[in-house]
Amino acid sequence: MRFQGKRGLVLGVANRRSIAWAIARRLADEGAQLAFTFQGDRIEKSVRELAESVSSPLVTACDVRSDEDVKRVFDEVGSAFGGSLDLLVHSVAFAAAEDLEGRFTDTPRDRFWTALDVSAYSLVACAKASEPLMEAAGGGSIMTMTYLGGERAVPHYNVMGVAKAALDASVRYLAWDLGQKNIRVNAVSAGPVRTLAARSIAGFPTMEAIVEERAPLHRPISADDVAAGAAYLLSDEAANVTATTLYVDSGYHSMGM
After folding, report:
1. How far apart are the first and last CA of the chain?
2. Helix segments in 32-86, DSSP class H
3. Is residue 147 among the annotated active site residues?
């Protein structure tokens, strides 16, 4: 029960196959009390049902592109958890489907900035909003989801790869800013996992097959595998781990070809 007495906010659950849900379930199973956000009416019912299954005290809408909405959400979280917060799970990303099919070169300016706003700046906004709540708790742990496409060119990942590169750098700079308040910031870089978001990436089955073939462990990655790594980074066992990316990809990131 590593998270007994801990309070956390989870952003990015869409359905029961979401990586964010696998992480949330792992935290809840180990004692954490969790609040959840959702984006849009389409997934609200699914998120509320999942949150209810872990006795969540708060489920609220959040548009991470709005500073006002982010502030409202963290005000609600503070009210729900007595003015403090221990854990923040950021599993939010977006790029237009058409920008994950053609050439990166053809990405229009407006959709480029939307991808970076939702996928990278949202972590900065949420970290800033969580800072006073985590300071009140004596410290905290923030974790986000990244991918190797932020370090290397992955066909069809396109603008999302650029957004992940910005996210990776944000993790390091946030870790520096917040470390003096005992707030840690880390990322998990997951290999291909079959989620709703993954279906929007052209050629995903090929990507999955290549990783399984060439990774040292020669096996696929599940959402539960990712959740185990995330739980470690969020736990007190990783008290001196910050500004770090943990790869849960069967070792694929280490290979040259």
Report:
1. 40
2. 41-53, 67-80
3. yes
